[in-house]
Amino acid sequence: MAFIDDLDKEIKDEIIGIFKYKFSAYLEEIKKDAGDFLEKIANDIQNWLGQIKSGALAERDFTGLMKSKKNLMKLPSLTNAGLSVVKMEDIRLRLLGIIVRGSLSLLAKGFV
Prior knowledge:
With 112 residues, the protein is mainly alpha-helical. It has 5 helices and no strands. The chain has one domain (2-108).
């Protein structure tokens, strides 16, 4: 699926930049879990970005829809690593922000 590959490339550097200091011991797990989450919701993201492009959906609504998917981000690798619930919630929120920005960036670049 080309869209997932494009989005993965778009967000990879930001994931590394944000998480390499605070969660450096878990960086590989974070990248794996983020990739798994993207695979689960890629079709939704593509659909919503298409709706933004056509004017049927506002960007702020896209952000809200993405936040509604937060519970699908299980982060099993981090759970197995023993991270606390608070740290995992912090990671979830940061990853959602990265994915939203990356998705909108792809839209602006015409990849959708």
